Amino acid sequence: MISKITSFFLITATLTIPLVSCQSQTNENNQNTNRNNKQIIYSTENKKPSTLPNGNNNALDQGQTDDHSTSGETQSIPWEANENFKSAQTKNNSAVLLAAYRTVLKDPLPGEENNVHLAAKMLTGKVVMPGEIFSQNQQIGPYTLERGFEKGPTYIGSQVKTTIGGGVCKIASTLYNVAILSNLPVVERHNHDMPVPYVPYGQDATVSYGLWDLKFKNNTDSPIMIWAEGIDNVLYIGFYGKAKPPKVKWNHEVLKSIPAPKKYKINKSLPAGAEKIELQGMDGAVVKSWLSIENQDGSKAIKQMGTSSYSPLPFIIEKGPEK
Q1: DSSP string covering 260-295, please?
Q2: Alpha-carbon gap, residue 205 to 170, rounded angstroms
């Protein structure tokens, strides 16, 4: 049975090829939260709060920053002097940077980095016309060996596996954040089943060709050009148009947190009693998100973005044999 609720509408689809990307779960309509849990409200402009157990604050607050070791909105982009980029700007009348976002991959696998770089190249120069709906799967998929994609990490249930095309959710999450910061309506978005370490809770997006997509609409009166580039473990995506959008700020409230469990496996090469973390766990959470929007004339608005629910990502710990 396939049942998936997006941020804004119900979608049911038939899986036409094997699952190749990232697994996710329902978000906005999952409202079963435990109000006895500590509630924390934070924004991407605040200091990181002491929130989720196990020190998962790195996935809570990543606002505008030009610290290239962290993800977040950025004004520092690597292609500004690129002649192809400048020519495309002129051709498409897109001189204004609407928004740009930098996503830092945490210790990426070789296939994951390849997939992100390849997808960025497929994305670069795409022009979304007024009224057009952009689809990541349509633009970049299918994520197959024949198209150059390799095995990368994928969430399957409560496990991290490797599948062909694994890692393209970094593209989806980055596109999602740039679309939001550009004040564009998001038509379809799905959060991961478990939290990810490269963007804050509530700001991720997952895709799976033929099933789940990331879509946004150009509701402006001029073309929007997308530019993207992967440099080592860092992904940059920017949107360009004709007029600067309103200032948009993310806000989140942690409604519920679920401590990450610890799973042990024996490693006979370790000394007796010694432990080694193979996979860093992350706490599960239910996070309510909304946007603060400040228009050019000074007027302000709030836009509710619904609730994202995450199961905990278990710690995988290797342990030396008993004496």
Answers
A1: PPEEEEE-TTSPTT-EEEEE--B-EEEEEEEEEEE-
A2: 8
Predicted pLDDT of residue 232: 94
- Per-residue pLDDT reduced to its tens digit, 73-106: 999 999 999 999 999 999 999 999 999 999 999 8
Closest CA to 171 of 130, 126, 129: 126
C-alpha–C-alpha distance, residues 195 and 55, integer Å: 13
pLDDT surpassing 60 at residue 222:
yes
> Which burial class, exposed, middle or buried, applies to 32 when counting CB atoms under 10 A from its CB (0-12, 13-18, 19+)?
exposed
Ramachandran region of residue 137, left (φ > 0), alpha (ψ -120 to 50) or beta?
alpha
CA distances from 152 to 20, 141, 195 (A): 9, 15, 17
Pairing mode, if any, of strands 315-319 and 262-266?
parallel
Domain ranges of the chain: 31-56+68-75+82-319
> Which residues face 257 on adjacent strands?
285
Helix (H) or strand (E) holding 154: strand 151-156
Kindly tell me the sign of the dihedral angle through the C-alpha atoms of 160, 18, 172, 112. positive
Q: At what angle do helices 169-181 and 110-123 cross, to 10 degrees?
A: 40
pLDDT tens for each residue of 114-157: 999 999 999 999 999 999 999 999 999 999 999 999 998 777 76
Pairing of the two strands 4-5 and 10-11: antiparallel
- How far the first Cα of the chain sits from its last, in Å, is 47
